[in-house]
Write a structure and sequence with these properties.
single chain; 126 residues; three-stranded antiparallel sheet; 3 helices; globular
Length: 126
C-alpha cells in the first residue's frame, strides 16, 4: 500500500444552484458501475455534503498518492464530471458549455480546489 491522502474542500454554492447541485449528486447514486468516480482507480471514497441551508458544500475524499496526481486523474479522465458538480460552486473556472473550459483548464481548477481546502485535523487509514 502506498501513500494514502485525504482532502476536504469547502465552498459556497452559487445562488440559485443548490437544486441543480443536488440533482447532479443524486445521479451519482443511480449510475452504479457507470459512475465517473469508478474511472478513478486511486480513489477510496468521495463524499459531498450540502450544509448551511443549502448554501455550502463540503467535498471529502481519500485517495492513493499525491493531491497533484489525484487532480490530474480527474482532469484527464472525468473533467466533465468535475464540471457538472463543482461548477455550482462560487469561483469555479468558467465553463459556459465549452468542453475545454472548467476543469480542463487544469491550472485554474487546481488553484480553485487548493483555495478551498480545509486542513485535516486527524486522519487514519487501516
Amino acid at each position: 500500500m502506498g501513500v494514502q491522502t485525504a482532502i476536504t474542500a469547502i465552498n459556497r454554492i452559487k445562488p440559485g444552484r443548490s437544486q441543480h447541485l443536488r440533482a447532479v449528486l443524486g445521479q451519482f447514486t443511480t449510475l452504479g458501475p457507470d459512475s465517473p468516480i469508478n474511472l478513478i482507480s486511486t480513489i477510496h471514497f468521495a463524499r459531498w455534503v450540502v450544509l448551511n441551508e443549502r448554501r455550502r458544500v463540503i467535498f471529502a475524499s481519500n485517495y492513493d498518492g499525491s493531491l497533484e496526481s489525484y487532480m490530474d486523474d480527474f482532469i484527464d479522465k472525468v473533467y466533465w464530471g468535475l464540471n457538472a458538480v463543482f461548477s455550482n460552486g462560487a469561483g469555479y473556472p468558467k465553463t459556459r458549455g465549452r468542453p475545454l473550459c472548467g476543469a480542463r483548464n487544469d491550472q485554474a481548477f487546481k488553484v480553485y480546489l487548493r483555495a478551498r481546502q480545509g486542513p485535516p485535523q486527524v486522519g487514519y487509514a487501516a
